[in-house]
Amino acid sequence: MVVAHKSNLMLIGVVLSVVLAACSGNANTTAETNPASQTTVAKVCNPPAQLDCAGADLRGANLANASLRAAVLYEANLSGANLTSANLTSANLTGATMPDGTIHD
Fold first, then answer.
1. How far apart are CA 47 and CA 91, in angstroms?
2. Domain membership of residue 6 as a residue range
């Protein structure tokens, strides 16, 4: 069960990273407070320069249309993942298990 929990955490981390990568580089550095919940939401988006998911368990992940440019996916498990229209330009896929089960060289 611990392995499943770690897999879920990795998947959440990847999804958040992909969402951050989709943010605009010109976002304003302001914050907004939701009056109903008093929750402050930052309007700043500073995505990582490079997504590092080496060895990640991404089985069955929906990464369609994701910007994974130059991502480190070394030995990641992508079996069954949806990579339709994902940008994998310059991504390190060495040793990664691809969606069809093959190992990328």
1. 17
2. 2-42
